[in-house]
Write a structure and sequence with these properties.
heterodimer; A: 67 residues; mainly beta; 3-stranded antiparallel sheet; two-stranded antiparallel ribbon; 0% helix; B: 314 residues; mainly alpha; globular
């Protein structure tokens, strides 16, 4: 892997999926959520109170239940 | 900004000399600080010469040799104090998970929980006044570090800092969001307005960030501090937002904290994985300093929390 790697998507072990750049994320109810910052964190644990975005809640669930 | 009120012999002589039309510098270097508050209000003021300065102090004094010499002397003492507080060697293991565990395992009091459930209106405003010393120049100490880094780490820091600075939109700059919140709360939104009201713990917190940011050799501590700060921000920011909502604090200030719920859920991953991760790939010898900076961030926040909770319990 190059030292200058710069992925568009980063899967964080135990945490969210980082998305670089502008995207529109559709939630399970079909609502569309445009990204608003240079890098966005999409919830993967399902427990965030700010769906579809990560709010750090994965850190308070047991480690074996984290993504 | 006006110069702060002096808090002892050293700050008194330094502040008077900085504002004198014909300064005599020798006493600045021969006077000892009476105590930690005297030392830290002096050091904070010396650092401010490198940020926004003071209305009554000539801009040229930013690089006055005697003031730089005094700053170095106070910094040496402060850095030793901070290093003496670190309880144990940096933990080994894969960096990112080790770092998240290090922060998670750190136990300390939570001001966010107190604001969420217990604080009254005046206590919440008092906390905002204390926090204003940093939040009104949010992210600025980290910016000092940028030119001291290799390309990978520099780009990683800027990816985070760009968001902190509103992606180029001054209306979204985090320090500006806080200033608008202060204004709507009926508090002063101007930079440094409440410096005379803050206790030692707030001065230490702010001085540690400037110490790390302004000394290239401490770049590892600066980025470790940044990472620990971000890792402890999202969930507490939500609690504070809910507490401010409970107290009827204006929406602009609540918005500052809700912005940090999502922003810092991103920033904590960037700070640990891409920023500190790339730094340590290239400079593994800085690992101890990354954890030194992280511990300092957590420890100084604990000290501030104990101070405020003790004040409010009295």
């Amino acid at each position: 892997m190059s030292d200058l790697e710069h992925a568009d998507v980063i899967l964080c072990p135990g945490g969210p999926m980082l998305l670089r750049g502008d995207h529109v994320v559709e939630d399970p109810d079909g609502n569309l959520h445009p990204t608003t910052r240079p890098v966005s964190a999409v919830c993967r644990c399902g427990k965030s109170g700010s769906q579809p975005w990560c709010d750090g809640t994965h850190k308070v669930i047991p480690k074996q239940n984290r993504p | 900004m006006l110069t702060p009120k002096s808090r002892g012999s050293l700050s008194e002589i330094v502040f008077a000399t900085m504002q004198s039309p014909s300064p005599s510098w020798a006493p600045v270097l021969s006077t000892l600080a009476d105590d930690d508050e005297d030392l830290h209000i002096t050091l904070w003021t010396l650092y401010e010469l490198h940020y926004r300065g003071f209305e009554s102090v000539p801009d040229e004094l930013e690089w006055q040799p005697e003031l730089i010499e005094l700053r170095r002397s106070l910094e040496t003492s402060f850095e030793q104090t901070l290093r003496d507080r670190v309880p144990s060697a940096a933990p080994g293991g894969e960096f990112a998970q080790t770092f998240f565990d290090f922060v998670e395992d750190h136990e300390g009091p939570s001001l966010a929980t107190y604001i969420h459930k217990t604080a009254d209106h005046e206590q919440a405003l008092e906390l905002l006044r204390m926090r204003s010393i940093y939040h009104l120049k949010e992210s600025d100490p980290t910016t000092w570090v940028v030119p001291r880094l290799s390309n990978r780490t520099k780009a990683a820091v800027m990816e985070l800092q760009f968001d902190e600075y509103g992606c180029g939109d001054p209306a979204r700059l985090h320090a500006g969001l806080f200033a608008r919140g202060m204004d709507e709360c009926g508090l002063r939104p101007d930079y440094g307005a409440y410096i005379d009201d803050v206790p030692l713990e707030v001065l230490e917190t702010n001085n540690a960030m400037s110490l790390f940011g302004l000394n290239r050799r401490l770049r590892g501590a600066a980025l470790g501090h940044l990472a620990a700060f971000e890792v402890t921000s999202s969930i507490p920011s939500r609690r504070i937002a809910q507490g401010l909502g409970r107290l009827g604090i204006p929406e602009a200030m609540i918005g500052y904290y809700t912005e940090h719920v999502e922003a810092d859920a991103v920033h904590e991953q960037l700070a640990v994985r891409t920023i500190c991760g790339s730094l340590l790939d290239e400079e593994p010898a800085l690992r101890d300093d990354v954890f030194f900076g992280a511990f300092t961030c957590l420890d100084l926040e604990d000290r501030f929390a104990y101070r405020m909770l003790a004040t409010w319990a009295a």
